[in-house]
Every structure is written in C-alpha cells, then in structure tokens.
Design brief:
- The complex is a heterodimer of chains A (about 280) and B (about 260).
- Helix content of chain A is about 70%, strand content about 0%.
- Chain A has about 280 residues and is mostly helical.
- Chain A has one domain (about 35-280).
- A two-stranded antiparallel sheet of chain A has the order 1-2.
- Chain B is globular and about 60 Å long.
- Chain B is about 75% helix and about 0% strand.
- The chains are: A mainly alpha (about 280), B mainly alpha (about 260).
- The interface of A and B includes residues 211 and 214 of A.
Chain lengths: ~280, ~260
C-alpha cells in the first residue's frame, strides 16, 4: 500500500489495457452475487422457485408418458435422456449467459452508454448483469433426470458413446450461450421486440426436449440447418440411443455438434461486434 | 366509482400505446402455442381420445392458453405493485383517497383488457390458420367463456395482489412472485392440460384456484367441463371471494403495522 501513488502512476502507463474478458466477467459475477445475497429470504424463495419450475416441467413429461408407452417412437427413458441433456446444457448456459435478458432495459434507459465507457469488455458486463445464485436451482432437476435416464437406458456403453454423451452437454451449452448472445442482438435492432428473443432461447430449449420428429419434416429440417438446435441433443443422442434418423440425414451429422457450436459462436461474436459498432444511444 | 373506471381506461390506453411490443409478444405466444400443439398432437396421434378430448380440442387448448397467459398475468411480468412496495413508492399510493385494493384492481384490469385485445386474439387466429383449431359457433358458449374468463381474471388478480403485498414484510416481492409463477404455470394447465393429469395429483390441481384461471374457461368453451358452466362459475367465484378477502385483510394489516421503505 505504501506505493499506491507510484502504482497509480505506472498503472496509467503499463496497464491501460482493458481487463481480460473472462476475468472481468468473474469479478462482475462475484459483485452481483453479493448484491443479490442482500435479500436472503427472497433469494432462497427464488432459488426454490427455479427448482420447482424445472421439477414441474419434468412432471409434465411424466404425465404425458402415463397416457402412452412411446411418443413418436421414443420410450420414456429415451425421452428422459433427450430432456436431461437439453435441460442440463440449457441450465448451464442460463447460469452463465442469461444476463443478456436485461440488455433491452439497459438500452432503453440509456444505461448501455455506461457499459461502453467502462474499460471492460461490453459482452462480459452484459452477460454478468444481474447475476444471481438462484439460477443454480435450475441445475438440480436436469442432473437427477439425466442420472435417472442413464440408469434406465438399455444402452451398451462404449468409450465413444460416453464421450459423445459428455460432448452433447458441452456442445449444447456452447450453442445455447451463442443463442443468448445472438438474441441479445435483437435488442439493438428493436428494443421492444425483446419477447421475440424468448422464442429463440426458451422456445428452442422446449423444442429440443422432445424427439424432433414430432415437429414434422419441414420444421425438423429447419431446426437442423437454419436454427441448428437439433445439434444440441437430437443428432448426437440418435447415436447414443442407437436410433435410426427418422429424417434419414447423413451419419456424420451425429458427430457434428462441436462444428455447429463453433459456427454459431463465430456468428454470435460477429453479430455482437456489428451491433456494438452500430449502437446509437437512446439517451438524451 | 368514476375514478376507478377512469383508472381502468387510462391503464388500458397505456398498454395499447406499446403496440409493437405487445405484437412481438403475441408472436412469441403463437410460436409457443405451435410448439405445445406439436407435443399434444404427438400424444393424441397415439391415443385419439384422452379424458373426452380429441386432437382438435387439444390443439385449440394450446392456442387459447397461450392467448390467455398475458391477460391473466401468469408470468407476473407487468406487475407494478410489488416493485413499488420494494422501492417505497407505494407511500404515494397509500395517500390516495381511494380504496387501495380497488385501485390496483382497476389499473391491472386496464392492462388485462389491453392485453386481451392485442395478445389473446392474434395467437388464436394464427393458430387457426396453421392447425386444426376448432372453435364453437354457439354464441351462448362464448358468453359463458367470457364470464368464466372474468371470474378467472379476478382469481388471478387476487393471487398476484396477495403475493405482492408480502413485500411489505419481506421487503422484496420477487421471491414470493417467482414461487407463484412456478406454481401458476403448472396448476393453471399451461404446461399440460389439467384434464389429462391422472390420480391424486390430477384431483388436487383441478381444485386449486389456478384451475379457474385458464383451464376452466377453455373447458367451458369446448363444452367439456364436468358439472358444466354453473360449476365452473361457482368454483371460480368462491376462490375469487376467498382470495380477494385475504387481500383485504392483508391490506388492513399492512396499513396498521408496516413501515414503508424509502429515503
């Protein structure tokens, strides 16, 4: 502490680079976590609510299977596998990236200007915005579901299948993170169209929880090649579950999830930069 | 009375001012309606009749529930009372020479009517273009449906009002609201129709107040409500009275004891 003045002097010269994005992100997350821990009862209740929401969703799926033995040719254990991997990947991305949801409000109130003048990555600030530990409540049900599905499935596990299973969640996580950022870009173009973003994030999560065949061929193909959420869990899971592809797409697609994740991440990075470049403040 | 009607009118006008936002929301409701419809179609293809509903009943249900989500405030995302209690702004509302509960009912009713115009009709109409949605032609059915919606709306308001008032004691309404949203999504039948839930769970959820909010109006419209329109109306009215009464008691308690935040 003795050489604070000295340090301040040298700071200006040597350390005028912005903080590295991920470091800044973690620092901001810590700050927001402290802030949200101020109202303890409320935090506990919201965490509980997140847990409940995911449980009730699972119960809904189980209710559907009390009426039928298979849905679109998939047994309960198989659908639970699809559901568990999707939900886990989405919940992880929700923990990390759903701060994007407050971007529209930020832009509307002119607070995004503050984000831009800080010497910290704008994306890190937006992703970390309003971070709250309540989101961890969403992780419990998917983990339990996936464990249950893995236990029930009559799958002969090989090293490759296990790797694909882990890769499914990892690639799914990246795909959803990219989707959060891409939907954040909607707020730059049309501030009041925020709810449309929900169709892409929550909507695509919902779509991949179930066997993709239920959406029919045209929509199924669109969800593979236009909005590539089929790669979150559907394509790799067909391999793990040993199902033939009802849409008869080529076999290499089963292993293309990392590629889809990389492509979507690249697209999201480009879109974000373009949006920042064209941003015009709404403040007066 | 005039002051409340004016509040309803102005609140509705405010909601209607943000048309593009509401239409973006209606589009989202439509997309979710489609996704839910696909799941229900997959189910009904395997089992053509469940609890007296055929495939087109199920699809109709998917779109009407999506249309009712916003007017009924299931996601509580337009509520102002809770945040005002948290920030202390509610002090101004407590000054007003009006009945506190009736005042907030008027403001929320205006919002719900606006949402009913902009967010209920488009998803159902678009759903009709894309799926085998079948609506009855009998005007009496529609009148009964609207009456059930009105009662269901009162139940939904009363629930949200009570949840918001909790902020007077916990200082932050978000915890209570999020529990209410979680329970409401499931118990109102937004995720799966309450009619297909088997066993004890089904019996329980069909008797919670949320059953009156979305499920019963749809049942009445489709003509599949057991006990008919009379039962649905009585069930909803009873819950509305109980919950509005609870709201009044809480309001009185809050006025007596509570220190408003602020500064």
């Amino acid at each position: 502490m003795a050489d604070t003045a000295d340090a301040a002097g040298t700071l200006a010269e040597t350390d005028d680079r912005p903080l590295w994005g991920p470091t800044a992100y973690l620092l901001l997350v810590r700050m927001w976590m402290r802030a949200s821990s101020q109202y303890r009862v409320s935090l506990l209740l919201t965490t509980l609510a997140q847990f409940l929401t995911t449980c009730l969703d699972l119960i809904a799926l189980l209710i559907i299977y009390t009426q039928v033995k298979t849905l679109a040719g998939f047994t309960l254990a198989e659908t639970l596998y699809l559901y568990g991997t999707t939900r886990l990947a989405f919940a992880l991305s929700d923990v990390v990236a759903s701060g994007v949801e407050s971007l529209a409000t930020m832009i509307r109130l002119g607070n995004f200007d503050l984000v831009l003048i800080r010497p910290v990555s704008s994306l890190a600030q937006v992703l970390a915005d309003q971070f709250t530990p309540k989101r961890f409540g969403k992780l419990v049900a998917p983990i339990v579901t996936l464990g249950w599905a893995l236990d029930e499935l009559p799958v002969h596990w090989t090293v490759l299948k296990a790797a694909v299973c882990v890769g499914t969640v990892a690639a799914g996580f990246v795909i959803y993170c990219a989707l959060w950022v891409l939907t954040g870009c909607i707020s730059f173009i049309a501030v009041d169209a925020q709810e449309v973003a929900n169709s892409f994030t929550y909507g695509s999560e919902f779509a991949t929880e179930y066997p993709l065949t239920i959406f029919g061929r045209p929509l199924g193909l669109a969800l593979t090649f236009v909005l590539p959420v089929a790669f979150v869990t559907w394509q790799p899971s067909l391999y793990v579950l040993g199902h033939a592809d009802p849409f008869e797409l080529p076999g290499f697609l089963r292993f293309s999830s990392p590629l889809a994740a990389a492509a979507l991440t690249g697209l999201a990075a480009l879109a974000w930069r373009a949006c920042i470049r064209h941003y015009r403040s709404t403040g007066s | 009375m005039r002051v409340y009607l004016t509040a309803v009118r102005l609140s509705m006008r405010r909601y209607l001012a943000y048309r593009s936002s509401a239409l973006a929301g209606a589009l989202t409701n439509t997309i979710f309606g489609c996704l839910r419809a696909f799941v229900l179609i997959a189910l009904w293809k395997q089992k053509p009749e469940i609890s007296g509903w055929d495939l087109s009943d199920a699809v109709t249900y998917a779109f009407i529930t999506q249309g009712l989500v916003t007017p009924m405030g299931i996601f509580m995302n337009n509520s102002e009372l809770g945040p005002r209690i948290r920030s202390g702004d509610v002090a101004v509302d407590l000054y007003r020479p009006v009945d506190f509960q009736a005042w907030w009912l008027s403001l929320d009713l205006g919002r719900a009517l606006g949402a009913g115009l902009l967010r209920t009709v488009p998803p159902v109409v678009l759903g009709m273009l894309l799926f085998p949605v079948s609506l009855p032609l009998n005007p009496l059915r529609w009148a009964e449906f609207l009456a059930c919606c009105a009662v269901g709306y009162l139940v939904s308001f009363a629930l949200r009002y009570v949840a918001s008032l909790v902020a007077f004691w916990t200082m932050d309404e978000r915890g209570m609201s999020s529990i209410l949203v979680a329970a409401g999504m499931f118990c109102s039948g937004l995720i799966v129709p309450l009619t297909i839930i088997p066993g004890v769970l089904g019996d329980v959820v069909r008797h919670t107040p949320w059953a009156a909010v979305v499920q019963m109006p749809v049942n009445v419209l489709l003509g599949t409500q057991s006990g008919g329109f009379g039962y649905a109306l009585a069930f909803g009215s009873l819950w509305a009275l109980l919950l509005l009464g609870a709201g009044r008691l809480l309001t009185a308690a809050a006025r007596q004891k509570v220190v408003v935040q602020g500064g």
